[in-house]
Each structure stands twice: as C-alpha cells, then as structure tokens.
C-alpha cells in the first residue's frame, strides 16, 4: 500500500511538470509574464542603445550644423553692415571732396591775381558812372604787387592751424575818393571771389587840386580822401609746397 502510493506521487509530479510547458532556465520558469517583462526590458535597452548610438550623434551633428549656420548668418550680417559702412564712408568722402572744392574756390590763385587789377578798376569806375562832371571821382592811384613770389605762412599770423598750409601774396593799393566811395570800394573788394585780407589801412585828406587862374574852385560834394592799404591774397599750398614748408619748419 505504501509503495503504491509513492509511485503514484512520483508519476503525478512528473505529469504536472511536463504538463506546464514553460521553459526553465537557471531555475526560472519563463512564464508569459516573465517573458513580457524581459521583452520590455530588452525594448528599453534597445531604445537606449539607438538613442546613444544613432539619435545623439545625429542631434550633435544637427547642433553643430545649426551653430555653423548661425556663424555664417552672423558673418553675412557683418558683411552687410560692412558694406553699408563702406557706402557711408564713400558718401562722406564724396561730401568731403565737394566741401574741399567749395573751400578751395574761396581762395585766390595765380589766375585771379592776374585779373585782380582789372577787377579793382572795374569796381572803382562802376561808382563813377552817375556822378556829376565836377564831383569827386574815385581813382586807383597805385597797384604794386610784392616783388617776391607768394610765400608760405609760417608766422602764426592767421593762427597756428594755417601754418604750412597756405601762402600769401601782398599787393599795395592806393585809392582816392570820398569817404562813401572808399567804403563802397572796400565792401566790393570783400565780395570778390578770392579770399582777400585788408591790412595796414590808412586814410588822410587828399590835397585839393589848385584852381586855374581866374577860376574859383568848383568842386561839388564832400572832399576826397587818400586811402592806402595792403591787400593780401591767400592761396592753398600744393603737396610739394606743403612738404617743403614742413621741412623748413622742422629745421627751425
């Protein structure tokens, strides 16, 4: 009786183990639940592997390309700004050239000095056109240019900033006329195109002409005055003259 029951127990255990049908590895029975957990763990591991080996390098490459694109965009914007600045600099240079041309037109040159005597005579005679026959008529009595060539300004007489940049030529002028005529002539001289400076101005009563015998003096209007002054014409130095003036100043 005992032997029979033992045999039946062994057979029943073997039948139950064989009937389960789940694989056993290292004593672990791989049931559907265990298999599902293992598959999930393997999926997560595979995903992490793909992230680390595929996605992350691609993301880093994207970030690098994005950084390069930002750098290139910055360079493009910088070049655009540089181009705008260059255009602005060119415009300022053109404006400076125009201003320089306008400024140089204010100064005298050799040609204007050659015609200065004609211009002065024209100014003086223009005021005599409507005068009565026996009225005082303005006259240019002396026009004496300096014997030397125009000399560079180095004595700071017009300010230290002018030294070595301008030269001047002096002309001695002597005119006779009434006070109003003299003032009108000086104002007209200021309106001339070249830049002229009046210096050493002196005025005095002009001697009256002696009347003819038997005829009284028949002058009409105010008495004439004699006026003398020095007219200085300012001219810019050319590059060679600027260099020579700088060399002379350095020696001093």
UniProtKB/TrEMBL annotation:
TM region positions: 34-59
Keywords attached to this entry: Membrane, Transmembrane, Transmembrane helix
The keyword Transmembrane is assigned to this record: yes
Region annotated Disordered, chain positions: 70-91
Keyword Transmembrane attached: yes
UniProt biased composition (Basic and acidic residues): 77-91
Protein name: Pilus assembly protein PilO
Organism: Chlorogloeopsis fritschii PCC 6912
């Amino acid at each position: 009786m005992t032997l029979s029951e033992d045999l039946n127990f062994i057979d029943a255990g073997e039948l139950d183990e064989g009937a389960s049908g789940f694989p056993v590895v290292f004593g672990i029975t791989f049931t559907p639940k265990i298999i599902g957990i293992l598959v999930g763990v393997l999926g997560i591991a595979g995903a992490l592997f793909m992230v680390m080996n595929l996605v992350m390098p691609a993301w880093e490459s994207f970030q690098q390309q994005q950084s390069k694109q930002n750098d290139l965009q910055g360079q493009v914007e910088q070049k655009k700004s540089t181009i705008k600045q260059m255009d602005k600099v060119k415009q300022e240079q053109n404006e400076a050239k125009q201003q320089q041309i306008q400024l140089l037109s204010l100064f005298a040159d050799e040609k204007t000095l050659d015609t200065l005597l004609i211009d002065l005579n024209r100014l003086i005679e223009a005021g005599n056109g409507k005068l009565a026959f026996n009225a005082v008529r303005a006259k240019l009595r002396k026009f004496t240019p300096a014997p030397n060539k125009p000399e560079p300004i180095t004595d700071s007489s017009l300010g230290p900033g002018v030294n070595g940049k301008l030269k001047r030529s002096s002309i001695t002028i002597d005119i006779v006329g009434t006070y109003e005529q003299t003032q009108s002539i000086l104002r007209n001289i200021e309106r001339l195109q070249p830049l002229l400076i009046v210096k050493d101005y002196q005025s005095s009563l002009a001697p009256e002409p002696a009347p003819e015998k038997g005829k009284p003096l028949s002058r009409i209007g105010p008495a004439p005055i004699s006026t003398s002054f020095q007219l200085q014409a300012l001219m810019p130095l050319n590059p060679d003259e600027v260099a020579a003036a700088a060399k002379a100043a350095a020696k001093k």
